[in-house]
Records
---
Amino acid sequence: MKRSNPGIITRCVGKHGPTRRIIIEPPTRSTAEENLRAIVSHDADGAIIVDNSGVVRFLNSAAERLLDRHGAELHGQVFGFPLVVGERAEVEVLRPNGEFAVAEMRVVSIVWEGQDALLITLRDVTFERQAETALREAEEFSITILNSLTNEIVVLDEQGKIVAVNEAWLRFGRENGITDLAAISVGADYFAACAVDKTLTGGIDVLQGLRDVLAGNKEEFSCEYELPTSAGTRWFALRAVPLRGKRRGIVISHTDITEQRRAAQLAAEAEMLREQVRQMERELTNVDALSRPEDTARSRLSSLRQRLPEVFEYALHRYGSLLDEALQSRIHRTQLPPRALRELGEFLGSGWATPRDLIDIHLQAIRQRSAQSPPKKLQAYVEEGRLLLLELMGHLASFYRSLAIGELASRPPEQ
Amino acid sequence: MSKIVLHLYIAGQTPRAERAINTLRQMLEHDLAGYECELTIIDVLADPQQAEDQKILATPTLIKSSPPPYRRIIGDLSSVADLLNVLNLPPKTGSSMINKE
């Protein structure tokens, strides 16, 4: 059957025979309504016919299933006047068990049982809406993951168009003076954006590397590049890998490695200074060994650390304080109180300290500071320490000298 | 004219429900500003019994119980003009009041 005009049904009879006979019958109201009833009854979508007051006059089995109610239960009840702006409206269809389905509602004016009526069709779109919601949530989850990363992430399709970015990437753009964020956001051409603003990648070689990964010529591309900013030079590590999945493209991550770079630089400087300290330790030990004959050294007292540990600890503490003060004096261009070091020298002399003990104290104090001080400070300690140690040795020597003079003076004249 | 009494049935805070509420607020505050109106919003997820008592089959449903004639509307409640037309509400003087259950 074919509908040519509203309310007019053209019937085709004997279309499989050798001769085709077509009978066109002028439709009567009852025939048209019967045909409409047959169509509506077998419609896969829920169909409810209401009068102008919204009272149910008919509903098909699909509508019964959708509403989860018997037709007899609803017949004669007020469903409501259907209001649609445009072609369709979405409604929630409530079921007796408290659940509901989402339905797309369309409305057509018809004549039903000789009265003006409205044919409401309800298409169950619950699954589609649930799928859309799930898809939206999955996309939101993916974006949340991207935004949780501190690396700047850009995902490109196979044409080089940006299909996803994270917040860190946009923040990076803002911080580097890009005012038109749309140029580096979803939908923009990444290579065009990089050609305009080189801060985004670091140079032409990088762009070629990205193109190689995009074309499948490289499994991965990575490089480090520096970027001059208002806060000084910053370093970034760029890594591009192919998008793993059905869609082709690449994922580019930019990681700010400025801190790691600085830390590595500081570690190298610190190691260099430590080596200097070790070298100085060797030199001083040798000087001490050469300063006394071997047999004398063995015959003398054992080290201050072993003999008088409390005196050694106090001297170490005092020497460390003087070292710190010496550093402050260097910064503020002031002078150390001259008596402080002389008093320490006399204190050590009263414990019969030797130059070796002074070297021991000095090295111990420097070692303590080398573990906690940045390289520049450690360098200053080493330089100031050398001067302080020499001066302290001078005071120790003066102390022993004055002791010797005093001893000589107190001896009775030789006969 | 007696007080305009409206009951809006919604199923949770869906975009459809929010659109319907906004339209009704706009209608009451502007088009029916001079009328004594009462709008009650019923969430059928929170109060399914009331929906069952009123034989609410779909949401959003808007019921005008006063003034007569009784009207029940289902579907897209985003057009103030369509709502006024179907609810048969020509403007008259009064005041408005909105409740939410």
Note: The radius of gyration of chain B is 13 Å.
---
Amino acid sequence: MSAGRRTFVVISVAILAIFFAIFLVWPMLYVVKGAFYYNNHVTFEFFSANLSGLSSGLPSFWAHPLDWMAGALHNMAEYPIFVSLALGVVVTLAATAIAMPLALVSVRRDFCGRGWMSALVMLPLILPPFVGAIGMKQMFALDGSVNIVLERVFYGITWGLSHVGLMSAPWTMPHVGWLKDAGFWSVVVLTTLHLYPIMFLNVAASLAAVDRSAEEAAANLGAPRWNVFRRITFPMMLPGYFAGASIVFIWAFTDLGTPLILNYQNVVPVQIFRMADQAQENPMGYALVVMVLTVSLLAFLGARGVLSLKPQAASTKGTASESLRRASRGGTALIWLFLGGLTFAAVIPHIAVILSSFTAPGGWNDTVLPAKFTLSEYHTLVTHPTALSGLLNSLLYSVLATIAAVVFGVLIAYLLTREKFLGQGALDGAVMAPLALPGIVLAYGYLACFVGGPLNPLQNPVPLLVISYVVRRLPYMVRAAVAGFQHVAGALEDASRNLGASALTTLRRITLPLVFANLVAGAVLTFVFSMFEVSQSLILAQDASYFPIARVLYKLFDRLEDGPYVASAMGVLGMIVLAAGLLISGRFLGKRMGEIFRA
Amino acid sequence: MIEITIDNLAKRFGKVHALAGVSLKIAPGEFFFLLGPSGCGKTTLLRLLAGFLEPDGGAIRFGERRIDNVPAHKRNTGMVFQNYALWPHMSVFRNVAYGLDVRRVPAEEKARRVSEILGLVRMSGYEERLPGELSGGQQQRVALARALVIDPDVVLLDEPLSNLDAKLRSDMRAEIRRIHDRTGRTFVYVTHDQKEALSMADRIAVMNEGRIEQVGAPEEVYTSPANLFVAKFLGGANVVSGRVKSCSDGLAFVETPAGTLAARIGSRLLVAGDAAVIALRPELIHAAATGEANAVDAELSERMYLGEIIQYQLLASGVELTATAPSAAPLGAHPGERVRIAFDARAAAAFPAE
């Protein structure tokens, strides 16, 4: 290795080490210390305070074990940490139940309209989740479209029945308080409908990676289809499944936007958000953050552990060209019934948001569809100072974050794939750690560490916002870049050096053009996810002039007259940007898209 | 044209000695082969010449210039990679012109040299194609052109034909030899395919376990292997063990279960009383003429028809032998038949038993 190259490696690794030490390790250590160390002594009281009263009113376990369990469950339902855990588990299971059959069909069956399937499945991802809740609220409110439709349907049926004399009078169904009485489940439904595409990407990718000859061998030995799936296919795809499941779990477990807008307070992220303004003083918040961090880390490391157990596939020589089994007519109908129904359910919030965005204030009450349409919300969007500055702020932050992520991503991918140095594993770990690090935890840590310091977010949150976007999106960027760097096999670069090109020329003319697609995909993902990032934006931006989109949406939502409608217009804009972004990165990454969203 | 001097070159990977002190001289303009089984160190040696690896000891010189600490991109070698390593995002022209770009050759001269070299490899007219649109053989030619166009001091070829099918491979052998002769450059060619080495090389270095076992012209290494490894690796050989009874006139007389057999002394170390093996190529065994020396009786146990030759398994007093004979002059017709066979003592070689 030449001296120049060695200097370059040493300097870049040093810069990265300092960056991660300040913006990743220190905030986390600070929070952990705050949770356990108070008034100069080590304490667990903030954890017990968060859990106090858990055993109150329980009968003796030995005398009445069933009552005890029922009582314990009843008590646990009062505690945000358990509710959040339940939310994560239920959403993961529900997303699995949806994604598994979809993936099986998409990877193994040919049917009429198959080409449309992946686009339809990905549709829910283009909904900024915050905005989805607005749409859901519009649809499922007490006087919302769903209740009105149900009321009319039942009225119509009972009117018919009474007309022929089977009932004395038509029945007016009382409006159901969907969101009021079933807060937990509305969060589950909305989150599941948003996250099943991520599960699908993972399940489909791991299913596609299962060597068909392994299945054929089992079938050849006489195993029936279900047996082949249970004994061969499922175990082989399991590691990939866990990788996706852990991401979905962490996402649901730590999601702030959806429960906040649905006004479901009893989950940890909302509790943490409520404590954010006392981040410096109140150690209860630290304890909550540490609990979230612990659970997320366990989920992440668990999935990684399973992934590392994955047996190395025996190399097989060439696979026979995949011939997909053609679905029968009934099968096709069944597939489309499931896919269609699911997609419809998933896009109800989109539809509601699109409709709201064209609704004049007060124009959508007690009606199924808006009564009055207008374009004024879009006009407001670009004239209203808060809305406009939100758009421009987010644009600026995301562009900065994307540039930084690309530069860092390329540098890190290069260091990880092309150089050997002490601490390479640590660098890899630091870059990937944010996958297990919820945005809310990072933001809270920043608030705790940096308020009053040189990067004080209360004065100017821009540097910390941009840095937090970069830190949290870097894993995706680095993954995309590393995949590219690995794909450009050593020989392609060797050939260039052999012909007399220096390392830099080789990087510029051979490596970068070849990994360009991956870099674009990573950059686009970084950009769109930064634009609509919720938890860090809500917690770190406290001054209205620096509000990014998410914070503006949240504020708009509280404004009674036209707030939700302007928010919807913003949401539609967001959907367009997200759709374009996912389309572009999907085009560049192709089937490897599934590898991006996993543990 | 340049002479390559390799002096006691060593390379370790962890605890594995990939090269254990190799010394070689490759003459200017020579078509030189590194031949050996996988893991013998031949590719390591080639990559050391290219500069992709740094040696742990020893020296490499191109002419008078010591180059083992010169970075790869300043060695002026042209390498042809096993999988061609054509850049998929560049056209044939841009792939070939790349080395000239890096050398800042003016556009006019660049165009002339690229078209000249594409003509030499018979790929004129494909300039604007992308590598993905070419067949394996065409990619091979482009890779060769890319390596040659920069006027390299040395052309390095790393198993360049291993991804081609059998017919194309034999066409390309002649083609590459022709290109070598036309350009007159020093070629170093790595392969595990002895047919390639024997048919194309000026000289061959047979390698094994990080060492060079023998260097010589194809006929020399084939007909006079320096040791048992070379005898067995090149062409294959029957190995008959025994004990040396006496030596005379360059021949060793070895007592074997099949009788006393004579063979050229392959190693000077061999003296009477030593345990020895005779390496005997299958095609040297022929039906014995009446009264011929060096003959034994054998039973024909298997016969396999291979087209131009027939391969036999023979059993001579418990010694198993493989023999081949032209289909036109068979050794025998049926398994179970008894035949008397002989071989020319000067063509077989006796080595110390390992």
Note: Residues 273 and 474 of chain A are 24 Å apart (CA to CA).
---
Amino acid sequence: MNELNFPLLSLVTYLPAVGALLMVLFVSGRNHHAVRYTALGIAVADFLLSLLILPYYQVSQSGFQLLEKSAWIKGMGIQYQMGVDGISLLLVLLTTFLGALAILSSFSAITERVKEYMACLLILQTGMIGVFFALDIVLFYVFWEVMLIPMALLIGVWGGKRRIYAAVKFFLYTLVGSLFMLIGFLVVFFAHGGATGVYTFDLIRLMKAALPYDIQVWGFWALFLGFAIKVPLFPFHTWLPDAHVEAPTAGSVILAGVLLKMGTYGFVRFSLGLFPQAALKAIPAILTLAVIGIIYGALVAWVQPDVKKLVAYSSVSHLGFVVLGLFTVTVQGIQGGVLQMINHGLSTGALFLLVGVLYERRHTRMLDQFGGLAAKMPVFAGILGIVTFSSIGLPGLNGFIGEFLILLGAFQAKQFVFGALAATGVVLGAVYMLHMYKKVMFGKITREENQNITDMNQREILVLAPILVLIFWIGLYPMPFLRVMEPAVNDIVARLEVHEPGRMGSSPHAAIINSPLSEDGRIADLQWETDDPTSAIKE
Amino acid sequence: MTEAVVLVPLFPALGVLLNLIFSRRMSEAAVGIMACAAVGASFLSAVVAVFGLSNMEAGHRAVETILYQWIGSGKFSVDVGFLLDPLSSVMILVVTGVAFLIHVYSIGYMHGDPGVRRFFLYMNLFVFAMLLLVLGNSYLILFVGWEGVGLCSYLLIGFWYVKDSAANAGQKAFVVNRIGDFGFLLGMLLIVFNFGTLSFTKVFAEAPHVFNSGDFMITLITLLMFLGATGKSAQLPLYIWLPDAMEGPTPVSALIHAATMVTAGVYMICRSHVLYDLAPASLVVVATVGCLTAFLAGTIALVQNDIKRVLAYSTVSQLGYMMLAAGVGAYTAAIFHLMTHAFFKALLFLGAGSVIHALHEEQDIRNMGGLRKIMPVTYTTFLVASLAIAGIPPLAGFMSKDEILYSTFNAGMGGWNFILWFLGIFTAFMTAFYMFRLVFKTFHGECRLDPERKKHAHESPPVVTIPLSALAFLSAVGGFLGIPIFLKYNVMHNWIGPVFAKVAHHGEEAAHAAHSLFAELSLMGISVVVATAGILLALVIILFRPGIAEGIRQNYSSLYNLFLNKWWVDEMYNAVVIRPLWALSGFFWTEFDGKGIDGTLHGIANGAQGSGGWLSRFQTGFIQNYALTMAIGVAVIMILALF
């Protein structure tokens, strides 16, 4: 067991699924009211429970904490291993936070099969949290696949007109990705086992091993496909607009807010963690895709007639920023990238919630059906305005901190061209978001149906208010968030730095800025790793 | 006493918060008074802080106040902090002082508008952001303010959002500014790359050691930052948003789009003078762009018929002068003109607002005339401001503009400076002409108002005329802060000179070194003659011989149309940038995403599933399929594990 003598992480993980099971068994499906409040209660309890990790988490300490480890399938080196570091901690908090809000936001939107719907959301939550906590590859893979089914059901059962098409497309895309991912994991497993005689799926152990370079390349690109589809990185993104447009509001919130982060989390944890040399070699290719995604996503978002598709394509652009940050392999870039995962979850989650507010009133999401709503919905106008500028990256709000650190990372890594091209996203973000805002809020009311449209009600404001608080908090005082992830990010950068010393060294100040190896001499722990890609694996 | 600097931005921020919380329950008047009080308190704090600064020893007047660490990542760190020095002190006094007068004026001007609470919310937010911009102790805090004022500009231009033209103008302003911000952002990133920090004091202390004069990197940095300045300060090629910004309420035009925000680019360059002094090539670009902007905007202003548009192009033109001054290294002159311009241009806009209000939203000067008898205070103050901007001594505009032209003439740019000077003096001529064309058409001659409007036309109430009079006073005497020739009594130079004196730079240094009284007096004489000639020409063409204007219009119709249509720059941008980009985006969506990627995938799916209806195969039982796949996967693991 761990230092707590208490499986806190497992409890946070399974509470939603177990709760869902009990709800299915003991709450009558006809009593929608009871189902809704039970589900909300479970989600809120899970959020509070996840907050309980904070007092036990040592912020300044690197490595995984609150470890839970026990043998699972001994013969195959599979164990049940959970743990948390700064990056996964933030992402889990985001998950439980958005999970509760997603359920609250569905109270009036979902009136059919409410119990099944809530159960799907809760089971999905267990899958997502498990992915972030899992420190055994097989366990990770199981959680990863567990997520897939409830999400596909959410789209396919409670979705819009083309829901079946969207659900199948989502399902097939991700399935193909996960198959490649599985192959990649097996490559790692056997390469490591063959060289050391220790066959294990223990992630912590595998991360310490230096795999031969050509094995790294195979593993890297196999996993890359799995993660890139999930992110989604250009050109693997076409499932996303369809999935979003058809999914119910809460599905979109979770999809954009958390599910997409599985891919970027995979990049940080596995791609950079297991295959450092291959990752360094792949930087130009991946940055190219990321930057294309930023610009392409923004341009296509601009011409969308459907608000939800517009937001979906904006996700392609924003996630491009995240990937850019991660693959600058600098402290600033990765911190910016991880923070931007959180930011995107908040801003885009909020945008989908706000689109849901409109949809519930008008049953359409077409831009040309709106216009002039600011006069009728002042509260909505204000909140949408704040979220819009958060998405645009206005300083003082959350989005700016992430974007700025990512671009800073790109420049520190001397990726000037990629950095400059990505920075055009700053202009394009304003173009499509303000275009959307103007079309919905400004001008005269031209549609009769909009004359009597009502402003947000208290429950809707209650859903958005916590997100707004975080938008301002991260924008004005991001240090708590940056500090939590700092040791984990330093570790990642240090591990990669070993393979390419002096990568950051030529800028007169970059070396100082980037050196994650502060006074505590953490580099000493890493000396045993090898620089020579051809040398044999050692443990 | 300098600690009071923290209160300067705090009061407007407080105004914003109180407005958000309480304004719904407050009367319209109370909301306006609260907003004014917030800015007034800010002004008083600024006075206290600057007084404290003046008690310090000259040359050591710089107080840095750190509030907290904002961003820290690796060894990169940025604080939220303020830098109070003579340069920022001038800025905060001008910003809070002019903003206070305009807030007071707004109580009268916005009276009865249903959105008045929102108006004062945005106005206070603007003052807060502007103060952050000028007080920030690092490029990043400056940038926060920079973007913040851009946001407020967007919100206030589109204040009457029901009008499509207003909504479009706000959006255009923000997007065009973002193009500039793109440059500014890259400049900042390169500064971090080279200096490891964005703090002003650290960057400026390091710069002369890190770079030699003329190095490629410092030239690139300064040019990128200048791109930011062309956006915010409406210079070529990004000036196009400012004329459209006149869709906002007139007090907004006065405060944001004349007196304060648009001067941010000039302030930023003066603040960064250490960097620009190391990049002579960039300075030439700054001076040239500024001068060309001044000239081009002047030509457009000659023929516009909307009272606010004339003033808008005049603002672009005057901002060009400030850039010219910065470009020739006459930073003090740039800030001096920034200040005097804030007085007289705010006054001109507020006067125009007074007229527009009296005439029930009439803005076309062809429909005005003879208003001086109906609106004597508005007329008198407008006339003072017009004389000031035209450059008639000893009013404020004369003093500052003359210094710019003098410095340009003396700038060592190997002859190029004479061309700039000539364009500058020609623009001065145009300025005098178009301003008095405006004065004569609006206030003199016969009244061309329709009878209904004329019946209701009236002088504005004191809440409007008192701020006008205060600004008229400042426009008249403000120039004495920077008396030419008698440098000993030149308050401006003595106060902010030391900020710019640390590194030698060509224009100003040369000007003072070769301080020839004769040369200065002759140049001054030319300025005065040119300004007078412009006014007289306007007098003749507009009032005495209107036929001449008609003749010119017909004989030179192509030139007239070029000016009237603003050199067709907007149309060009539309055709060359916006429409192609829109088409390309549509192509990406329907062709690349739709037919390219999805088409290929559908093809594969069809191929794999046999012809037709591939979806139906998956509709039932895809979970079983999936489970099967997973089972196969596990089986593979187990089999391989046996080896």
Note: Chain B touches chain A through 65 residues (CB under 8 Å).
---
Amino acid sequence: MFGNKLENMDLAAEVNELSNAQGRSLWRDARERFVANKAAMACVAVLGMIVAFTIIGPFFAEWSNEEIDWDRMGAIADEGAPSFENGHFFGLDDLGRDMYSRVIQATTTSLLVGLIGAFMALVVGTLYGISAGLIGGRVDAIMMRIVDILLAIPSVLVIILLLVIAGKSFFMLFIALGAVSWLTMARIVRGQTLTLKNREYIEAARAAGVSEFTIMYRHILPNMLGVIIVYASLLVPDMILAESFISFLGLGISEPHTSLGRLIAEGAGTMAYGTLWQLAFPLFFYVTIIITMFFIGDGLRDALDPKDR
Amino acid sequence: MLNYVIRRLAVAIPTLLILIITCFILMKIAPGGPFTSERPLPPQVLANIEAKYGLDKPQWLQLVDYVKNIVLHFDFGPSFKFKDRDVNDIIAQGLPISLTYGFLSFVVAAVCGIALGVTAAIRHNTWIDYFAVSLGIAAQALPNFIMGPILILTFTLYLGWLPGGGWNGGQWPYLIMPVIALSTSFIGSISRLTRSSMLEVMNSNFIRTAKAKGLSTSTILWRHAMKPTMLPVISYLGPVFVYVLTGSVFVDLYFSTGGLGQSYVGSALNRDYSVLLGVTILYGSLTVIVNLLTDLAYAWFDPKIRF
């Protein structure tokens, strides 16, 4: 009866393998849904190429972003066009600087602004919202009223006000972007906390003697991580847009730093002289980044938001 | 309903007060002032100027005066940079211009966006839908400061059809480009929102019932589906109006319309804090009012909300 031992061993191994199979976690489901979304995956690839370009691109640059090409400076419209021969792949800007290096510098800045702005919103908004939701009562009411008041001021005006008052700098720009972007995040997180904190499993955890802090980061935070990630990803293009708008007005990042909004402003200012490449290259990178971010955000929402299925 | 309006107003007024006070404090802690220049003024002259503008009084008294003037006389004080004009003059001159095309852009964005979204939703999963969706996404990636240069390049520099800027009493050739520049990205976002909202409504049970009763498509659409579709759109229109106001800062500057945005950016660069503050407070107040109106419109549209 037990003669065919080898076969039995195989069977046992097979059974073992089956019982060891990975459970289908929510995150794995979400990842599979996201990967199945062709538009979102294509956008991840395009965005990845842009990021790779900002990292690898500088190694191929023949001019730095601050060098001035004195030979061609006087005749930008005639000799400043993009060309491989003189090493200005994207042409020259109005002051004779290499657009290739400038565009790389600006793209890096804009991507950083988007990421850091969204990250600050994520941290501050989540902490604020979760505390308001968990503490509840009068503290919650006051905290949310503060958010309401701050939301009543147009955010771009707040950023301009802060930059004018505290002086223009990279650090201040991030502070200003963070200062306006956490508000909606705080509202969303508070709403989520309120719905989650009365669930049965939270009650069970509390009955089992789990401390409030542990409940917060072990049970509440992971359960609303999806919503937070979705909203943060939608914030990134918003931040890039806001920064570009302010830089376009000349109130944001100042020389020698530059951002895509700044370059577009410069390109728009000189386009009447026929130097269209000064507008076209930054514009191309800008629009591509914004569109890919939209699709990635949408893809994340479809993948992570259980309501919309 | 009246109760609700009163309650909302009771919240809005302290909001505005806190807004004014916060902005005032920010202005006071800012380094430098309108009278700091490379060539410092003699102390006696500086003292006289400060006395003229009431800057020699204690800070709290200045704040009280400022708030009192705004609340009682709607007076935002003098401009520190322009000796002949006060903030009220600047606002009175610029605001009507900014509001004119701001409002036009808002209407254009709402009408075109909703029409595009509804068309896409009705023809779901056909080439019309795909076309409308790609149009919406493309529009959303083209904010006002991108559209401005593109429009000027096309219509002024190459085609020569439209004037590149100016106001000229608001004649229509001067209005077209600012309005398109301001409304494009909102057409995109409104159409996407309308489309997804309408698709959700069209899949709901009461629409299926209406179809089962044998109602015509147009009756279902206009009598049953339209109102619930508009709910999320209306709550989004409030923020859009605020964005349009902010966006008009750019349009004023780029198309030299003489609107409020030009003075705003000018004052920000010149550290003319009283103008900066006055315009911020004005826009803040408009935002509060628009949010209030949005909530009321929402209550009117949604039968589930009654106060």
Note: Chain B touches chain A at residues 11, 15, 18-19, 23, 26-27, 29-31, 137-138, 140-146, 148-149, 152-153, 157, 242-243, 245-246, 249-250, 253-254, 264-265, 268-269, 271, 276, 279-280, 283-284, 287-288, 291 (CB under 8 Å).
